[in-house]
Design a protein that fits this description.
There is one protein chain. With 161 residues, the protein is of the alpha/beta class. The protein has six helices and eight strands, in the order E-H-E-H-H-E-E-E-E-H-E-H-H-E. Helix 4 crosses helix 6 and helix 5 packs antiparallel against helix 6.
Length: 161
């Protein structure tokens, strides 16, 4: 059994990977994950009524996880040591312009051995990420990240019109 944890379960997550739960893939169990960044983001929202994309798109687990655990994020990255993958629609890391100084740390997380795959949801997203990484990193790191990238269009329900 593989446990796939996710931090959000909105439209993007459903459209790109949680939809698979309806197809009942054997040996895969999707579970909701809570982490330190989401707890802080939630408290900031309650107190200040604003969402901070910097924390929203990062992950650091609160608890240890069993073997055969993988995290799957949408536009997010992990700083932990549990294997993870990410589907994205524009670029990773996705922190927002006010956090430009944190991008190298996010890129290092994406280049780390814990990041197993990054899934571009379109050719445009893949090309954007390749250009972004080539501008922001040395060639060896860009090559490492690009070797993990695949393009996988979101599964769509059949339109019966």
């Amino acid at each position: 059994m593989i446990n796939i944890y996710h931090t959000h379960s909105g439209y993007n997550e459903y459209r790109n990977f949680l939809y698979l739960t309806e197809n009942k893939h054997q040996g895969i169990l999707f579970k909701k994950e809570y982490d330190w960044y989401k707890i802080r983001t939630h408290l900031t929202y309650i107190i200040q009524k604003k969402v901070d994309n910097f924390r929203l798109n990062q992950h650091l687990s609160c608890f240890p996880h069993p073997p055969n655990t993988v995290f799957h994020f949408f536009n997010g990255i992990s700083h932990g040591k549990t294997p993870w993958i990410c589907s994205f629609e524009k670029n990773l890391p996705r922190f927002g312009p006010q956090y430009e100084s944190h991008i190298p740390k996010g890129i290092n997380a994406t280049a780390s051995p814990y990041c197993k795959k990054i899934i571009a949801i379109s050719n445009c997203a893949a090309n954007w990420e390749k250009q972004f990484i080539e501008i922001k990193t040395p060639k060896s790191i860009a090559d490492e990240i690009n070797s993990k990238m695949i393009i996988m269009h979101p599964p769509q329900k059949k339109n019966n019109r």
